[in-house]
Amino acid sequence: MWEYTDKVKDHFFNPRNVGEIENADGIGEVGSLACGDALKLTFKLDENGKIADAKFKTFGCASAIATSSVLTEMIKGMTIDQAAKVTNKDIADYLGGLPEQKMHCSVMGREALEAAIENYRTGGRKKHELEGKVVCTCFGVTENEIERVIRDNDLTTVEDVTNYCKAGGGCGGCKGEIEKIIERLQGDKVKAIAPAVPRKAGKLTNIRKIQLVQQTINEQIRPALRADGGDIELIDVEGNKVIVAFRGMCAQCKMAEFTMRDVVEAKLREFVADDLFVEEDKESAAQPHNHRK
Ligand code: FES
Of 27, 29, 52, which Cα lies nearest the Cα of 42? Predict the structure, then answer.
């Protein structure tokens, strides 16, 4: 069950401006019934070039109805230039927020507004055209659109992008490309955030900590040791003490102490928690040939 704000509920149960304006100055249609939601927005200008009336017809969930309804209220009284600056974040903020998984409804509202403005400016009466290369063929989402939601909402993960524009939410075949776009636009932020996620050691449960330690060993440490004919095994985690055993070449290596501090401990502190320290399992050290494949 989604958590909706009172304002979302209000606009869902009592939607404003439902319908279609005859002889509208701007008409914008986005989405498709096949994709689960669609929106048609129409507006009429007054003699001063301000939006005097706006109406919508939508097919979709509670958030789609609420965002469409609130959008028509927001843009009344705006000039075209002012309306053109409305972002999906503005729409969501006006509603007091939307569940992350429903942010794509606010994007649909912004797209419909853009399409209606484009229709007003160019006079064309056609559906909003896709601009740029299509990255997600499941939902017809272009590279331009993905870049736009990343920039407008400061997104840093593929999951965020899926929540905001649906791209990646079907077969998943476009996720790699979405990741590259995020890296290109948000490179530094992604790098800064990535290690910070597991670093919230205070909030880690013991099970989660053990999982992250194991994952870090498997992905960050083991490949390097194996390349040198060695290996490492996680024996236990007691509080912030991680007990490991070296195997193969590593067990006989004079550099084991160095490897433990400068490789194992450093990686675990980087990817799991700052306060971890590593100890070698003494029993295993006494049995260096107990190598497990
Ligand atoms: S191509 Fe994007 S989810 Fe299938």
Answer: 27
